[in-house]
Predict the 3D structure of the following.
Amino acid sequence: MLHAANIAQQIPRAELACITDVDAAAAQACADALGGIRAGTDPGEMLKDPRIDAVVICSSTDTHAPLIIEAAEAGKHIFCEKPIDFDLAKIDRALAAVERAGVKLQIGFNRRFDANAIRIKSAIDRGEIGAPHRVHIISRDPAPPPAEYIKRSGGLFLDMMIHDFDMVRFLMGCEATEIYTMAGVMVDPAIGELGDVDTAVVMLRFQNGAIGTIENSRKTVYGYDQRMEVFGSEGSVEGENLYPNAVIRRGETISRDQPHYFFLERYEASYRNELQAFVEAVVNDDPVPVTGIDGRMPVVMGLAARRSYDEGRPVAL
Amino acid sequence: MLHAANIAQQIPRAELACITDVDAAAAQACADALGGIRAGTDPGEMLKDPRIDAVVICSSTDTHAPLIIEAAEAGKHIFCEKPIDFDLAKIDRALAAVERAGVKLQIGFNRRFDANAIRIKSAIDRGEIGAPHRVHIISRDPAPPPAEYIKRSGGLFLDMMIHDFDMVRFLMGCEATEIYTMAGVMVDPAIGELGDVDTAVVMLRFQNGAIGTIENSRKTVYGYDQRMEVFGSEGSVEGENLYPNAVIRRGETISRDQPHYFFLERYEASYRNELQAFVEAVVNDDPVPVTGIDGRMPVVMGLAARRSYDEGRPVAL
Amino acid sequence: MLHAANIAQQIPRAELACITDVDAAAAQACADALGGIRAGTDPGEMLKDPRIDAVVICSSTDTHAPLIIEAAEAGKHIFCEKPIDFDLAKIDRALAAVERAGVKLQIGFNRRFDANAIRIKSAIDRGEIGAPHRVHIISRDPAPPPAEYIKRSGGLFLDMMIHDFDMVRFLMGCEATEIYTMAGVMVDPAIGELGDVDTAVVMLRFQNGAIGTIENSRKTVYGYDQRMEVFGSEGSVEGENLYPNAVIRRGETISRDQPHYFFLERYEASYRNELQAFVEAVVNDDPVPVTGIDGRMPVVMGLAARRSYDEGRPVAL
Amino acid sequence: MLHAANIAQQIPRAELACITDVDAAAAQACADALGGIRAGTDPGEMLKDPRIDAVVICSSTDTHAPLIIEAAEAGKHIFCEKPIDFDLAKIDRALAAVERAGVKLQIGFNRRFDANAIRIKSAIDRGEIGAPHRVHIISRDPAPPPAEYIKRSGGLFLDMMIHDFDMVRFLMGCEATEIYTMAGVMVDPAIGELGDVDTAVVMLRFQNGAIGTIENSRKTVYGYDQRMEVFGSEGSVEGENLYPNAVIRRGETISRDQPHYFFLERYEASYRNELQAFVEAVVNDDPVPVTGIDGRMPVVMGLAARRSYDEGRPVAL
């Protein structure tokens, strides 16, 4: 719905053609809300429509790879939500189909399009901090998802930390070569019963020599905590949280309201910007800013992080 | 254009019917950009259309009062940009026409719909700071407008400080009774040659006993400076500037980028919110949140501020 | 006691010779605490001691002028707490005695020696903010003094705002030419019954064209509020409050502890630094950094501020 | 010299009796500066003086253990700078001597006495953040020490990170059970030639389940970077850097001056406070706040961190 509304209302060079959902009523509701768009349940039918140039895949993760293949074979450009799949072989088949078809594929790592990430990346690229020595990301959710979601999520490393794996690759501009994980169940024992963890810290070594750390928690009492710092030979840049207002209160303490509660508020602009960038790439026939390889590597990293946790040792990438 | 785009794209319960502008090409360009809206140069013709419920007046200030009267007599609800007029008699005639017609009139004091203002107002209303003793507003533009604009603007007190006069009334919830002004030409002598000032500070006494100060400057080297503090018996609330990102850089200094450059970026959401509120008031037949009297009083204050400056003495309101 | 301990322990080039106090026990207690210093109740006797080079006068305000005269006539250099007196004629007689004797006189405007004030002054002097257009000082005490103190204090303008009058002169580097006051009793009616106010705002015009505002309150619920901003053609510098720690807590709100509670904690270093500077001036025969005129002008300003309040009009200085 | 001046001038219940240094001139200079204290080169002679209750050992690290033993056998209470030694057997012999003699031994982990550390520890102890899940410490020096110093320093883990090992133990209130290190030479190849690293990150598991990370760098371009955060089930507390002033400048950027340059400025108060606490413990016969075990465990951790780095695997503690 978010993506559909962005395309329909916020991106002048794109036109929303139709909506499909396995739930026909959901598809119809979305189509109605956006002003008489065509709705359906069969993506295959939609892919036959020659007036359609591109598709946005935001269905459940297990459908991503087959839909990418189907769309690529239909010659459509593709925007697909992360992760492509939890299985590298399936990812590789999907990427091969995209390659064969010569269509564009952009993966939905929206945080690259956040103002903080853009500013930090540009600081690195312009030499404002010299050679990067360290990257540290804090990513904490306000509350864990329901058990049903966790079961199908691929676990913390592939569902939640995957965004941070993408971010460290994006910021460092190179690959990680080694990963070590400490993790545990500190928030909710039910998450542990599902075989997952709810708190994790990983340490990474990058090809440029820099050392990375990422920490995730499924729960804070104070909203969505999304911070990062890159430290280098000439300085440091740190992205702080964003807030719904900038009002300071002086009373028993000196305080401000909590940061944005969760990702829809916090990353609102980035969802619009990533689709805008995809549409520009399609319209101008430019390379997409987040490629299939960018979709694959964070899955490799997430699988390795989990293996390091399971085996209690550093894992080479 | 901003208001038109907001109505067309951001406010689901409103539909943009047509655009008029004395410049036919401008009207057409705006209408085209928003997807085939009707365009014209004659508001009178548009006002005859029975399918139109409400109008948004954002033409030059001298046309506000006559257009309000014309729209009220046509039975349309009215949103009008500030100021209604520089002449209180003209304002009173316009408000009388609105009263007679029984239509709604909302004045475009958009800053009341800014997240900082909303939070500060709610802090006061909920007793978070006790009885207000002080209100202080800093409002500094990044650069002065062109001389042509200044000539027709009514001067700093009616063009720029009028927003702050509205804000102190909104926050204090009562009227000012006395005003004293110090001002000068510090930014650009050309502004002085036009009989205007570019830097001003006013002090106000309110009916609730609180003392207010407002300071304006037409120029900073660091973007748009929009801060305010209300101090009371139980604490203080202070609205800080808003920034395009939340990235801190540690290098020669500990720094962040400048705040938003000017009002379009800084108050973007408030422009959407004020029209949203107007549309809700019209659709639900509720009172508008910024009334004709709210439009009149800041003009009274602006005229008194100027008189205080001219006569070098405090002026009763 | 504070000054005595600073001289005895913190300023290597000074030696504390003796302590006098009208209360013999208090003098003795202070002398004992500082390790066997001579104590007495008669300053005249002490002034005969040829080994004593300088005196620090921190008795009640009504004794300042006579003690200055007595010390000057004894050829001692003088550090005297603010204010010299509430009566300009008495101040002038004291300054004349100092002039005749050729001794040094430094007035205890300690805030000039605070790190924030030093940094802001140096920013102005180095051109970091260009030509000053505005200076704004917020000075709020955590709690009003006892009625007994207020009776003898000279009132808010001569007791409390006098520090801010000194600060604006220090920062602007020129005199104020006009002052306008709004004030009231908002904190405690008992203060009003003594003929004093507890909340005041003054507006000042300076010789350099800049406009100043100072606001004082006798009471906050959040400790000592000591902030100031100077805005100019090339930027702005703002001194924020100082805090006992730099710990941020993220919970129901994002908060930190209140700032330093009152002047002893907040301005601790400045009390040491002002005496250090006095001792250096004496030892090196350099000019003192805060002169007799610097002690006189804030009294002139305080008297004018009160007159403006009493007469409801701006007062020329 | 710092400790001597603190005892001589800042701690009323202690008296500085004498100074010894292998460099007689240095001892004399220090003694003269503090006002006629006895100076010498032989600690053994001093230890015979029955009027001396306690000693402060701040000689080079290799002398710590023998001096502790000598002082303990002379029945003196001991304050000793960190680290006790790089060799655990020597540490154990020194601690055994202290135990036998029944004297007090406090180790100089001054940062526990810093206002940020005290506030964070009290937040944890009072339940403000619930159960700790994470602790993260950033500790970066402004510039690497000379090669001569590095040679004798024990390396980054025993010289620099040792403070952070103490801090995580202090904050968590339990021991670490596992450690994993990534490190490198990023600042200066000369440090690598000495077999040391200049940049390191360690990950720790604690007995309470929490996961810790510590990062060190020998060089920033922006002064001394000393931050830490503890995150728990009910919130987070974060200690920010301390600054020489609290002045914000608005110009090309919104900036403030760099934080305190190095440990003498940053931790000034903590050096005074730790000795104050030692003196109180001696005078009141209370337990010292930082014990011999507190001195031993960070050495264990530093040795394990180095082993983890050398062997590329997590090391159990």
Summary: The longest strand of chain D covers residues 132-140. Residues 88 and 296 of chain D are 7 Å apart (CA to CA).
